[in-house]
Amino acid sequence: KTLRIGMIAGDGIGRNVLPAAQRVLEAVPGIPKPTFVALDAGFEHFQKTGTALPKETVDTLKSECTAAMFGAVSSPSHKVAGYSSPIVALRKEMDLYANVRPVKSVEGHDPRMVDMTIVRENTECLYVKQETIEDTPQGRVARATRQISERASTRIGRMAFEIALAAAQVKQQRGAAASAYGWTGGPTVTIVHKSNVLSVTDGLFRESVRKVAAEYPNVEVNEQIVDSLVYRLFREPEKLSTLVCPNLYGDIVSDGAAALVGSLGLVPSVNVGDSFIMGEPVHGSAPDIADRVPSIANPIASIRSAALMLEFMGYVEPAAKIYDAVDSAIRAGHVTPDLGGKLSTDEVTDVVLKAL
Ligand code: NAI
Ligand code: MG
């Protein structure tokens, strides 16, 4: 079995941090020796060629690659004719219907022991981008369509239950360490919605996930209205575990949750479909610190995203080794300036490789 990984560095610090992921993937024991193929996408590529996501990138991913890593792309705040975000297009092209974002504290480092995973639906909700505007006698009125389907809600629900089961297993294996994270019981899925107000759309989401729950009698199911969930996120994040959310709530809740662990430069994600997996740090292209020599971009989000990619491909042990190596670097204070350290991107990566 071979591993061929598409590497889409993109713009800004995407180019600074993706090599760190590659070095770690080359070094981690327990996986087939990976090969890599560099692929284009992004705003700079668009400026050069008029295309943000070349067909060749998508074709190569589909025909050659087992999985991929995505760095970051810049999206201009003004509208640029012909440009639309390649990450949104890629998720659609590859049918990556789930965005999974674990937010975890490092034991012995962070004051609050957070260990939650947000499972965000990646294909619909308000992001179907069907917006209209019309002139009326009372002034302009804009409308957006919000699509929630039974099919998308059911498959994201199933993913959340599988993740909750896997997370509980990992915690059980780690025993004592797990209790430090405030984890006490078995696997739990919390359905995040607002069906008290949006009873049709969020109602369908809630009902579809609840139906999946019947297949998982060993997983505890509860639910929380999104606004009170945000309250709990700040008050008692230690008590949250696996959250399943429609697209927009998931976007907002997961960025908020990232603030609980110190830096955007730490938080990984993975885009998951039934036949493809793509790791992606949560942060953007960070033009304010991009392309410094030496680079000071924190490589940890990117390295953890590579581990997450492996985990979702079934390489659970190699992924755990990477997480542990990263945690030890953080605990020892071998970090970049965003975390108060003095090391460069490459130096942090060197420390992680040594721990590995
Ligand atoms: P950002 O995540 O790029 O940066 C926010 C702040 O966090 C900046 O001060 C940056 O220096 C810092 N930061 C982010 N990642 C870091 C890392 N690895 N190490 C150290 N510091 C880090 O978000 P911002 O500034 O809102 O957006 C910049 C560009 O990125 C925009 O063009 C935006 O559209 C794009 N973006 C792309 C995303 C993606 O590719 N998935 C996601 C979010 C934003
Ligand atoms: Mg976001």
Automatic annotation (TrEMBL):
<dbReference type="InterPro" id="IPR024084">
    <property type="entry name" value="IsoPropMal-DH-like_dom"/>
</dbReference>
<dbReference type="GO" id="GO:0000287">
    <property type="term" value="F:magnesium ion binding"/>
</dbReference>
<protein>
    <recommendedName>
        <fullName>Isopropylmalate dehydrogenase-like domain-containing protein</fullName>
    </recommendedName>
</protein>
<dbReference type="GO" id="GO:0051287">
    <property type="term" value="F:NAD binding"/>
</dbReference>
<dbReference type="GO" id="GO:0009085">
    <property type="term" value="P:lysine biosynthetic process"/>
</dbReference>
<comment type="similarity">
    <text>Belongs to the isocitrate and isopropylmalate dehydrogenases family.</text>
</comment>
<dbReference type="GO" id="GO:0006102">
    <property type="term" value="P:isocitrate metabolic process"/>
</dbReference>
<keyword id="KW-0460">Magnesium</keyword>
<dbReference type="GO" id="GO:0005739">
    <property type="term" value="C:mitochondrion"/>
</dbReference>
<dbReference type="InterPro" id="IPR019818">
    <property type="entry name" value="IsoCit/isopropylmalate_DH_CS"/>
</dbReference>
<dbReference type="GO" id="GO:0004449">
    <property type="term" value="F:isocitrate dehydrogenase (NAD+) activity"/>
</dbReference>
<dbReference type="GO" id="GO:0047046">
    <property type="term" value="F:homoisocitrate dehydrogenase activity"/>
</dbReference>
<dbReference type="Pfam" id="PF00180">
    <property type="entry name" value="Iso_dh"/>
</dbReference>
<feature type="domain" description="Isopropylmalate dehydrogenase-like">
    <location>
        <begin position="4"/>
        <end position="352"/>
    </location>
</feature>
<dbReference type="GO" id="GO:0006099">
    <property type="term" value="P:tricarboxylic acid cycle"/>
</dbReference>
